[in-house]
């Protein structure tokens, strides 16, 4: 299976074919002592807000949607709701945020988001997640029928043990997702983000 391209910079599509949606994938909802969101989720939200701003600037007056995905609850807070909170704080108009509240895995993120966008006539999107998670995420969104490109959220340097753990997790998850055939991983690029055990 040929995997879509990934970049660490904001993406702007040609004006004649605007990328009309930005999709940010959920992560564990964590808060620090002050009650502020911490960890992977707010970093993904910040990256998505930057991409959304770029898309707004190049969309010839068309306001792109931003899909916040994730139905899993962490201490009573659902991922998509926490993402919306972070996105609004980062300047995304709340009216342009659509929550996907049903998914419990990356595979379901892809299936449910693709259907949600199809109902709105949108078939192109930029997917925002962590670099180590991106390859599998893009493969799943492509298989679901969405034309996607990726933008990786930046994150701190992590240990070799964490990199190996992520590599193992992604390979096992790829098998569960039916992506094992032709699957490729790049362990040395799995540097971004704190440990995040999404399946």
What can you tell me about this protein's structure?
The chain is of the alpha/beta class and about 200 residues long. It has a domain at about 20-155: HUPs (Rossmann fold). The protein has helices at about 40-55, 80-90, 105-120, 130-145, 160-175; strands at about 5, 20-25, 30, 35-40, 65-70, 75, 75-80, 95-100, 125-130, 145-155. Strands 1-10-9-2-5-8 form a six-stranded parallel beta sheet, sandwiched between helices. The longest helix has 18 residues, at about 40-55. The two termini are about 20 Å apart.
- CATH superfamily of one domain, please? HUPs
Largest sheet: 6 strands, parallel
Which percent band covers the strand fraction?
15-25%
CATH fold title of one domain: Rossmann fold
| Shape designation | globular
What's the average pLDDT?
82
**How are strands sequenced across the largest beta sheet?**
1-10-9-2-5-8
| Rg from alpha-carbon coordinates | 16 Å
| Structural class category | alpha/beta
Q: Roughly what percent helix?
A: 25-40%
> What's the order of the H and E elements?
EEEEHEEEHEHEHEH
CATH architecture tag of one domain = 3-Layer(aba) Sandwich
Tally the beta strands.
10
Q: How many DSSP H or I helices?
A: 5
């Amino acid at each position: 299976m040929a995997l879509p391209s990934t970049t660490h910079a904001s993406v702007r599509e040609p004006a004649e074919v605007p990328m009309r949606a930005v999709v940010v994938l959920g992560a564990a909802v964590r808060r620090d002592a002050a009650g502020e969101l911490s960890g992977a989720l707010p970093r993904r939200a910040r990256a998505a807000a930057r991409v959304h701003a770029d898309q707004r600037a190049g969309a010839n007056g068309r306001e792109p949607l931003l899909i916040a995905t994730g139905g899993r609850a962490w201490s009573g807070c659902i991922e998509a709701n926490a993402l919306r909170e972070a996105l609004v704080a980062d300047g995304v108009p709340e009216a342009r945020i659509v929550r996907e509240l049903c998914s419990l895995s990356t595979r379901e993120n892809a299936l449910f988001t693709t259907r949600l966008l199809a109902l709105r006539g949108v078939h192109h999107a930029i997917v925002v997640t962590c670099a180590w998670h991106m390859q599998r995420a893009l493969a799943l969104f492509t298989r679901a029928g969405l034309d996607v490109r990726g933008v990786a959220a930046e994150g701190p340097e992590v240990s070799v043990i964490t990199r190996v753990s992520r590599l193992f997790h992604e390979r096992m998850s790829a098998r569960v997702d039916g992506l094992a055939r032709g699957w490729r991983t790049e362990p040395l690029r799995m540097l971004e983000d704190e440990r995040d055990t999404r399946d």
